[in-house]
Every structure is written in structure tokens, then in C-alpha cells.
Amino acid sequence: MIKVSNLTKEFLQGQERTRVLKGVDLNIKKGEFVAIMGPSGSGKSTLLQLMGGLDVPTAGDIQIDGKYLNKMSEKERTIFRRQKLGFVFQNYQLLPTLTVEENIAFPLHADGKLTKEKSRVIQELIQAVGLEGIHRKRANLLSGGQQQRVAIARALVNSPTVLLADEPTGNLDRANAEEILRLLTVFHRENRQTIVMVTHDIFAAGFADRIILFRDGGIDQVVSREEGDYAKYLANFMA
Fold it and tell me: Which keywords belong to this entry (predicted)?
């Protein structure tokens, strides 16, 4: 589903170039739930932005579902993002004066896809994320956990090929974080949704099938959830 080859990203700071990603190679299968962990500044969020077509690499290739993002024009990447990718962010990024239902439907307006069938999908997503009964409530009146549920439903409304989540539980307490992670797990298991999640939280990473450990712009280690005592290893890695 996702193939990253020799991916490099540099940023110009004054007269100096800083290399944030250093020739990263990574494959993610269809229907896999992968967590990317690493210390601050390790390059994990930069990698997610490149996978999402929000930025372009300095060198290397990114393929999603057989399409090269790095060879697309800006307009082509924008269309690809709308049609193939779903995004969940730490700060939700909802439109505060729109209702739950309107926020979920918002991506459909850009492509003129708000059909009767999609209206049914919206109602199914509202139920799936546990927001029935408050679907006409404005986003700015919701709790953090409720807002993130709206964000997940919005990300899934176009049936994306890949769901990208950047610290989706970063602004939530442990109880709400666990609810959001279990919700992502349901979509992953029941719908074979491919999910790539960046997180600094060992607890959150434990919900993934595979954990990619990032350090200094590259992959340091790959750990499977089934491996014994992986939590202890992750704790040592993040120390």
C-alpha cells in the first residue's frame, strides 16, 4: 500500500541545510496499523507529512497505492489527498461553528459528492463513532474526545485508501485517548483500514500491529506488538 524509498528531506535554515530524513526505506501493507515513534526532532512527523503529500521530499520516492506522490504536481497531490487520504490531527482542526454532521460532510463538498448514498454513510459514521444524539451540536461545544471522534469520522467519510494520524491522542486524557485508540482499532480490524499513526505515547503505540522506531532521521528498529516485553524496550528507546 505504501512504499517509501531512499527518502530524504532537507530544510534550509539561514545558510545551512538541515537533513531531517536520511534515506528512509519503509513498506506498509494494505490493512496494516503502523505506529511511528521517536523522540522529538527525530523526523517522524516530517515523514507523515511527506506520506500525506503535504510537503515534497528533497530526494527519494513515495508510492501510495501505486501512485508516486513526489512526481505529482501540487494540484494533482491536492486531488489525491482529497480522494485517497484521510487525516486526523492532534488539535482536531474542525470548523468550530459547524455542527458535527456538517464537519463530517465538509470534505464531500469540495468534490461535489454529497449524494444520498454519502448522506447515509455520514449517518453510519456518526453512529460508529458514538455521536448519535449530538450530530446537530456545534463543534466548539464538544469535549476534546468528542471533537476527535468527529475528526475521525470526517477523515473516513471519503473511504480513504490510507488514514494518517498525527498524535491523535496528544490533547486527550488517558480515558479519552483509550476510547479513540479503540475506535481506530475497530475501523482497522473490521474494514481493513490502513492506518499510519505518529505518536510519542507508548500506550498508544501498543494498539498498532507494528511499531517503527525513529531516531536521528532514520529507522532505528521495527517492533511487532506480539514480541515479548516490547513495552520495556520502547521505554528504554524513548528514554
Answer: ATP-binding, Nucleotide-binding, Transport
